[in-house]
Amino acid sequence: MDHGVTVAAKEFVNLNLSGGLFLIILGFLGGLISGFIGSGGAFVLTPGMMSLGAPAAVAVASNMCHKFPKALVGAYKRYKYGQVDLKLGLIMGISAIVGVEVGVEIQKFIYAQWGSAGSNLYVSVVFVVVLVTLGSYVLCDGLRRMKTGEATEVTSNLARRVQQLRLWPMVRFKTADATVSLWITVPLGMATGMLAATIAVGGFIGVPGMIYVIGAPSLVASATELVIAFVMGLSGTLNWALSGFVDLRMVLLILLGSLVGVQLGAVGTTYVKDYMVKLVMSTVMLIVAVSRGVAIPTYLHELGIVQLAASTVGLLKNVSFLVMCFALALGGVIIVGSMWKRKRELRVEAEAAVAAKTT
Amino acid sequence: MIRQAVIWGIITLVAYLLVFTNQAAVIDYTTRGGLFAVLVVAAALVFSFIHGAFANYLLEAIGIRPLKQKGGK
Fold first, then answer.
1. In this predicted structure, what is the pLDDT of residue A1?
2. Among all residues of chain A, which has the CA nearest to that of B62?
3. Which of B18, B21, B67 to mutate against chain A (most A CBs within 10 Å)?
4. Confidence at residue A254, expressed as pLDDT on a 0 to 100 scale
């Protein structure tokens, strides 16, 4: 893998063995998280590809292009487990495409006003505010349900009120077990798209939105998010590929890891109780918020608001990226650990049953 | 399962080797933009199918299978 290629004004990186392995591992961890919580694995890939020397546009385009096949495989797998609400996913996915356009326009405006550092600062602030707010809420809810040991989820008060709102056109979502007005699902889909255009992970709004606003069970929400990610990813890929920005080699290396990870994560959902989706999602959200929080002073420095030494800026950026990788790795450990634990419990139960029969 | 994992594994390996031994041509065609965007989407779908099938059989072959099928409330 040693051919460096330049086409027109776009630079395509030399991919060596270590760079390739790095992408495969990031892809696996990202896929594992996405397969389990429906989203959340992609945010580390854009900076990951840029750290290999890929220009930002090529990294964003290639990240987008790896997203839709991964989401497709994950959604198919979880559809077979009866967890996907296809109608909800398609309605929110199409709304999300509109949301992405709105998000991109906001980004363009900020870039035109305050340049690259202003844009980075905006993205980081959105990251921290959204992830800390929603992450804390989801974590508290997940912990509460873990303590009470609820086998099935109780619909939130907000979702119950939303479902009582009879505003035409009402749509019945069978798998999510909810009848909700399009006036709720479409804005929620748009918000998911706007967040995706801003921080690359719309699911951090989409999944909690489906759980707490629409009233879908966690497993259905996280599985349906994969359909939304597929629709958004396909549309985004076409946009970028029309201008020739996708580096197919990087996409295929990421897919090498992520298609294994996403299926492992999907299988993992059949091993755990519903609240585990909330616990893993909130853990990843809160650690990623820390990661982006660490990077904020560097953008303030670039805007001339605070003064930092060059070495400090470099250190903060590296710490930020490492914390992001840690978020993925920890999420992966929790998922695989939960599966391992459940398997052992089942083995012990089976052995006890055999022992009881023989005595 | 093992047999299917091996077959899909070989297909995946050949497909990846074809791409990475012809990187310059791959980049040339897939970054032309316009109608060539279809090539990018098609390639991503083809790889997701063959490598997705391999990953599925690989996980099943090593004993990672779904425990229960569940959905709504």
1. 41
2. A264
3. B67
4. 96
Task: Residue count of chain A, please give it.
Answer: 359
Residue A238: which of B28, B41, B72 has the nearest Cβ? B41
Task: State the best of B40, B49, B58 to mutate against chain A, taking most chain A CBs within 10 Å.
Answer: B40
CA-atom Rg of chain B in angstroms: 17
The token pair at A218 is 């966690």
Which distant-in-sequence residues (6+ apart) come within 8 Å of B48 by Cβ?
A69, A70, A72, A73, A255, A259
pTM: 0.90
Would you state the pLDDT for residue A4?
Answer: 47
Please give the pLDDT value at position A292: 84
User: Shortest CB distance from B40 goes to which of A70, A83, A248?
Assistant: A248
- Chain A contact set for B9 (CB, 8 A): none
How large a percentage of chain A has pLDDT more than 70?
Answer: 96
* Integer Cα distance of A348 and B65 in angstroms: 18
How many angstroms separate the CA of residue B4 from the nearest CA in chain A?
A: 16
Judged against a pLDDT cut of 90, whether residue A341 lies above it is answered with: yes
Please report the ipTM that was assigned to this predicted complex.
0.93
Q: Are strands A5-7 and A170-173 parallel, antiparallel or unpaired?
A: unpaired
Residue A195 token pair: 């967040």
Half-sphere exposure of A259 (CA within 13 A, CB side): 29
**Separation CA A179–CA A352 (nearest Å):** 44
At A97-108, the pLDDT tens digits run 999 999 888 988
At residue A9, does pLDDT exceed 70?
no
Q: How do the domains of chain B map onto residue ranges?
A: 2-61
Chains A–B, number of C-beta pairs less than 8 Å apart: 138
